[in-house]
Amino acid sequence: MIEDETLLRRLYEAQTAVGRGMANVFAVVESYPELRSSDQFLELQAQLEGSENRINITRMRFNDAVRDYNSTLRMLPWNLVASLGSFQRKAYFRSEEEARNAPDLDFD
Q: Long-range contacts of range 37-46, CB-CB < 8 Å, 24 or more positions apart?
């Protein structure tokens, strides 16, 4: 489990960089209609959709695990054990409000 909010922030920044790179790819595709209709590009679209779904599911599972961990730290006797063992609450993976809404992409 990721313990540091700075690591989560770096993960978010890496995802943002990938998103910017993909925006550049789609900008090139817009300039070349024959590329847009190729089988490889259609496969790329399917792969991106699958990747986005897997990332979203993993993010939800991570946040569920953090919620369970943080809840356990507040319950007796675990809060006593946590204070003796220097266990700290973990950070949730949160995205900025703009990142919650994916941009509309027109491939037609």
A: 45/107
Nearest one of 90, 82, 101 to 8, comparing CA atoms: 90
Is pLDDT at 72 greater than 90 in this prediction?
yes
pLDDT score recorded for residue 41: 82
Name the E strands within 1-108.
none
**H and E: helices and strands count for the chain:** 4, 0
What's the residue count for the chain?
Answer: 108
- The encoded tokens of residue 61 equal 């599972």
CA dist 11 and 16 (Å) reads: 9
- Find, among 73, 71, 69, 92, the residue nearest to 84 by Cα: 73
3-state secondary structure of 46: helix
Distance CA 29, CA 53 (A): 23
**pLDDT the model gives residue 100:** 56
Backbone angles phi, psi at 31, to 5 degrees: -80, -15
